[in-house]
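step 4 of 6: structure.
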Amino acid sequence: MSLLELKNVSKIYGELKALDKVNIHVDQGEWVAIMGPSGSGKSTMMNIIGCMDKPTMGEVLLDGVDIARESSKKLTDIRRDKIGLVFQQFHMVNYLTAVENVMVSQYYHSMPDEKEALDALELVGLRERAHHLPSQLSGGEQQRVCVARALINHPELILADEPTGNLDEANENIVLSLFRQLHREGTTLIVVTHDPEVAEAAQRTIVLEHGRVAREVNNENFDPNAI
Amino acid sequence: MSRRKMFLRMITASLLRRRSRMLVALLSIAIGAAILSGLVTVYYDVPRQMQAEFRSYGANMLLVPAEGEKLSVEKAAEALHLIPSGQLVGQTPYRYVSVQMMRNQQTFVAAGTDFDQVRTTSPYFTVEGDYPSGARQILIGKAVADTIGAKTGSVVELSFHPQSTESTETAELKPGATLAGSAVGFNQNPVYVSFSLDEEMKIRDFTVDVSSQTEEYGGQCGEEFFTRQFTGASLPLTLGEDIDAVSGATITSTAVVEAVNGARPTENAAAVTGNTLNLQVTGVLETGGKEENYIFMSLDDLGVLTGEKDSIDVMELSVSAGAEELNSYVDALNEADNGVTARLVKRITNSETAVLDKLQALVFLVTAVVLLLTMICVSTTMMAVVTERRKEIGLRKALGASDGSIRTEFLGEGMFLGMLGGLLGALLGFGFAQIISVNVFGGSITLQPLLVPITMIVSMIISALSCMLPIKHAIAIDPALVLKGE
């Protein structure tokens, strides 16, 4: 069953076609990597899937709802309820502690619950660092807090934009193993990346070039039980 | 944890962990609030401060006898129980009587009073020498001093001639009677005459006092060539027929004739002489006003001189109160039916009200300007805060914050700042008002406890208003901002 389906989606900025009649679909529980060089339309696609932008043309079905037709207020609701975001720049509220940053996501979603937030930090191995400010955390630790924050509201889709782009190998592995765990638990993952190694961790890779889907590759070596 | 608790946790964290930035905003609010509360304190305290100041301009209320009544110091004091003693700065009795200077027969107004009280109701009196402190001592106006050539230390002899009273007014004129009269001459100044009637009811022993008239013209009415016309004449006299006017002094001439025609027998020969007292001048009074024409003495001395004690003509009061309060006292005094009538000295009370109104309007204007400046300052700071926190706002929106949430958070931060700034400002403002009060008015003020919450609420409202524009900008921030790798 498909969770996300893009049908003939185009995004046009004046002369520039950032996306040109893109068709993709992602099944419930699937792990998809999106690759492509700079300017290939990855960010535009991320913004559209993340309910932060609307296509010029085409349909974007998320859980059966065409988000291309929704008001921006409704898009905020959908993003909050269904999508967990992980960013390249980590992006934490710099005056809130790790656990408070996780709780911000709960606050906008429903009810802040410190215990649940601490459990999420436990999951990413940062229970001990829960009351540190972002400035006291390393880059890898910050990104793990972001993953905890993304999954705290049990979203149907986790959308990660270059999640390992600013991390060393050790931290990259930690983040990837977190993704594997989420995947095993049935969360749908879409990961935008430059890094072939990160792409290889996914079940399927969609390659964008000049705003079009250049090719789709199924990962023969995908190991659902890898750690 | 409830959403409200998390909300408070977020905004306090924002303020406490981003100290330097928020300190600027807090300081601008606190300074605005300080000036605001300080000026409001001054605004409400100015009337009280100025009332004390205004008392140096002299009496602002008068007590005069009610119709058909006589006023005495005791009666006035009794009536004045209606005014709280704390507000009654001074109460000075005055009794005015015409007296004659024995040396040159000139007539002056003698004012009997209480010198201790004079200092309170007329603090602007300037005395060269000293105020009288014992019996038989007087203070003379500068004009009097100049006229009679007296100075501090001089001894003058004053005598009192009783004015014609009602009983004698109707008395018939008889041969041998002694008569005295007066009339208003040039420049509203009086002329006095006295004479007797012989067996044939003709005038003899005619004297006239025209010293109040101009020396050049009216003064000639005192010359023999004019006065001799009266001797042997019969009443009533007609100017132009019985008496020729002095050329160039028609008004004075007319007044002298009127005085003669209106003259009434004096009670007895002794009363014409009246009492005579020797009094020592202790000081010369300079006021620039009508008081310079008076001779001031104690009520007791005036009593001895006139043979009549106790009665006074007017009680001057200096009451430290605003126009409204003064009016209420006047009404209360008049309604009490104590045989006294109270009146306001409009010249003083009106100018006090005008000065106060202007001062308050000025303070009000300054307050409005300060409020505006505070708003601009807070707004600018919040705008800088929004710009600085674009990323964070984008992140919050990406995490699902609605426009309403963003608005509430910034408004919450702004109002929290306003509350803290208001509290700080209210306390600073009290100090500020105290400094103004001590330096400008020379008195301290009391803290109005209600002003603290009011300042806090006003600061919160001002901060909330100042946040409107910055919040509009915050809401316009695109959540996609955070996805762009930078």
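step 5 of 6: annotate
 - The radius of gyration of chain A is 17 Å.
 - Chain A touches chain B at residues 43, 46-47, 50, 52-53, 73, 76-77, 79-81, 85, 87-89, 91-96, 100, 103-109, 111-114, 133, 149, 161-162, 165 (CB under 8 Å).
step 6 of 6: archive
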